[in-house]
Structures are given as C-alpha cells and as structure tokens.
C-alpha cells in the first residue's frame, strides 16, 4: 500500500495529493525561480553532492509487487533493487545500483508477553531527487518520522539524505526498548537459575529461546554499524546532516555493546544452568547408589536363607531369626551413617 507520496521544495511540503507518476513528472519540470528562504547557505562544498531543491518522498507499507513496479517505472529504479525491497529476509546492507542507493534495515520491537522479538524490514531507496521507503511488517511505524521532519524544514532542506538519517535514527532508537525487555528477562532467568529451592534445569528452555532472540537482534544491529560508518565517509549525506548521523552512530554503538553483553550473560547463565543440572544428576546418582548398597545387605542375607537347603545350622537355632534381623539392621545402620558422613545421603 502506498501510504504517502509528496514533493518537498526547500524543506516544505507542497500541497496536493500525488501518485508516483505525477511526482516523477513534477520533478522533471524545473521549479519556478524563487529566492532561497531564510538565511542559511546550502550551497555544496567542493566535491560534495549537491542538495536538490525539490525531492519526492514516497512511503509504502507491505506493498504489492504491482505498486513497487509502479514506483520503479516512475523513478527508473533497477529491478534488482526492487526485488530486494520485496524480500522479507534480506540481510542489512548498503549498495548502489545505477545511481540508486539502497539501504536495508531490520526493524524490531519486543513482545513482552511472548518474550520474543518481532522483526520487520525497512528498505530506503535514495536517488538524487527522490527517496522511496518500503516497510515490511509493523515492528517500527514511520508515520512519526514524516510528521517530525515536516515540522523541521531546516532538516528536510538537506533532501533525501535527511529522510534516510531520520529513519536510521528511528530504527536504532527502537532497539533500545527491545534490549530493555531482553535485559529484564535475563535478570529474571538469572534469579531462577541461582535461586535456592528451584530445581536446576527448569530455566533451560527459556534461556535457549532468549539467547536465540539476542542472536537475531545481534544479526540485525551489527551490520548497521558498518553501514553508518560508510555513510559517514561517503558523500551521500551532506555535511550539514552528518552531525545527526554521528548521533545515530553513537546510539548504535551503545546498542551493539548492550547486545554483545546480553549474549555473553545468557551464554554464561546457560552454562551455569547446565553445570547445576550435571551436579544434581551426580547427586541423585550418589543417593541412589547409597540406598542400593544399604538395601543390598538384607537382600543378600535373606537370599541366602531363602535357598531352602535341608542342612543349614542356623535354621534350628532358637535365636537365629532375631539374631539375623538384628545383624541386618546393624549393618544397614552402619552403612547409612557412613554414607551420611560422606555426603552421599
């Protein structure tokens, strides 16, 4: 679905409803010769990519292939770029094909009830005078990004790159609540692992699923660090917009570090839980062996006197029965006390 389609001139949205085709035709028409607003000089420095005075911003959410084909024809985007935007399992990356910069991001939000991370995908297609944003899934909603930028024309004045940086900022900020939820669950499961009276082994499944969510989050966030570094070194983002990109890089570094710490904590907790399971199994085996040894004594003696031979000297003794019972009880008691002292019981 095409969520919004607008043209911006000098950072201000032009009135009227548009389609991708009408936007492309409008951009092909030179704007009227009007003075630049408001005092800031946005002339590009030597070697810097010029900032377009007009650009289009098209937003799509879970689009049909026909809608993306319409956008592709309007802005002359390479088919491979459109194919990547439709694939929900693309790895985060940045690439340029025939003048169009494509940036794939993995959006995320934490579902506390299910203790899992829901992932989506956002693809930003950046041209000289257009930006197309394709969102798959509802992990991060981008409506607020457009509203905030439209209230700050001085940022939109930097063209499509300003939209790219703002979307990056929104996606990276959304990782914060995800990690908050994961870290809260890690605290709970660590308490469960080391709590007295809780049988070890019960948190194993929860630990495994939390570790899986952390690994998926790490795969979504780690590549973005390289992408942001590449944008900082390149000329796709104007110098005036790079301070905002630098702020995104700082937030992203914190996200990557927290994700790595969460992975290390979960791995350690899983190892500790498995160690406790092994120790409890050894303890159970010692107890079973001790009781088997104690019960083996009366079993052996009873087995001997249950062989029913005609000539057994103790069978005719008046005190044979109580003597044998006392002997079995004494030996069992001695074994029990010995196992108790050694910690087996």
Automatic annotation (TrEMBL):
Family: Belongs to the CorA metal ion transporter (MIT) (TC 1.A.35) family.
Localisation per UniProt entry: Cell membrane
Reaction(s) this enzyme catalyzes, per UniProt: Mg(2+)(in) = Mg(2+)(out)
Compositional bias annotation for Basic and acidic residues: 39-49
Domain of life: Bacteria
Phylogenetic placement of the source organism: Bacteria, Bacillati, Actinomycetota, Acidimicrobiia, Acidimicrobiales
Topological type in the membrane: Multi-pass membrane protein
TM helices/strands, residue ranges: 288-307, 319-339
A GO term, aspect molecular function: magnesium ion binding
One GO CC term, this protein: plasma membrane
Species per Swiss-Prot/TrEMBL record: Candidatus Neomicrothrix parvicella RN1
Region Disordered, annotated ranges: 18-49
Matching Gene3D superfamilies: CorA soluble domain-like, Magnesium transport protein CorA, transmembrane region
Its biological purpose: Mediates influx of magnesium ions. Alternates between open and closed states. Activated by low cytoplasmic Mg(2+) levels. Inactive when cytoplasmic Mg(2+) levels are high.
Keywords: Cell membrane, Ion transport, Magnesium, Membrane, Transmembrane, Transmembrane helix, Transport
Protein name as it appears in the record: Putative Mg2 transporter protein CorA family protein
Annotated coiled-coil segments of the chain: none
């Amino acid at each position: 679905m095409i969520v919004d389609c607008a043209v911006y001139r000098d950072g201000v949205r032009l009135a009227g409803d548009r389609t991708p085709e009408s936007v492309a035709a409008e951009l092909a028409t030179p704007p009227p010769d009007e003075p630049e607003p408001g005092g800031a000089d946005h002339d590009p420095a030597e070697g810097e990519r010029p900032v377009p005075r007009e650009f289009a911003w098209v937003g799509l959410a879970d689009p049909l292939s026909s809608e993306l084909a319409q956008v592709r024809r309007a802005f002359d985007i390479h088919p491979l770029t459109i194919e990547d935007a439709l694939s929900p399992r693309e790895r985060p990356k940045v690439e340029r094909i025939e003048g169009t910069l494509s940036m794939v991001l993995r959006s995320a939000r934490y579902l506390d009830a299910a203790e899992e991370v829901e992932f989506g995908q956002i693809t930003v297609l950046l041209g000289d005078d257009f930006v197309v944003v394709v969102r798959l899934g509802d992990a991060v909603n981008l409506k607020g990004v457009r509203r905030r930028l439209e209230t700050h024309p001085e940022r939109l004045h930097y063209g499509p790159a300003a939209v790219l940086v703002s979307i990056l900022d929104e996606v990276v900020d959304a990782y914060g609540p995800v990690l908050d939820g994961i870290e809260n669950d890690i605290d709970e499961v660590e308490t469960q692992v080391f709590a007295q009276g809780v049988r070890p082994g019960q948190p194993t499944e929860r630990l495994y699923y939390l570790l899986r969510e952390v690994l998926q989050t790490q795969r979504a966030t780690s590549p973005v660090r390289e992408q942001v570094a590449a944008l900082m070194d390149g000329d796709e983002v104007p110098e005036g917009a790079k301070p905002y990109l630098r702020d995104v890089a700082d937030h992203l570094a914190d996200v990557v570090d927290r994700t790595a710490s969460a992975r290390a904590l979960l791995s350690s907790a899983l190892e500790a839980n498995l160690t406790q399971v092994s120790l409890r199994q050894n303890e159970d085996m010692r107890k079973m062996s001790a009781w088997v040894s104690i019960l083996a004594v009366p079993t052996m003696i009873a087995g001997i006197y249950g062989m029913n031979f005609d000539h057994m000297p103790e069978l005719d003794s008046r005190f044979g029965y109580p003597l044998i019972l006392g002997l079995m009880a004494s030996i069992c008691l001695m074994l029990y006390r010995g196992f108790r002292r050694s910690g087996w019981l």
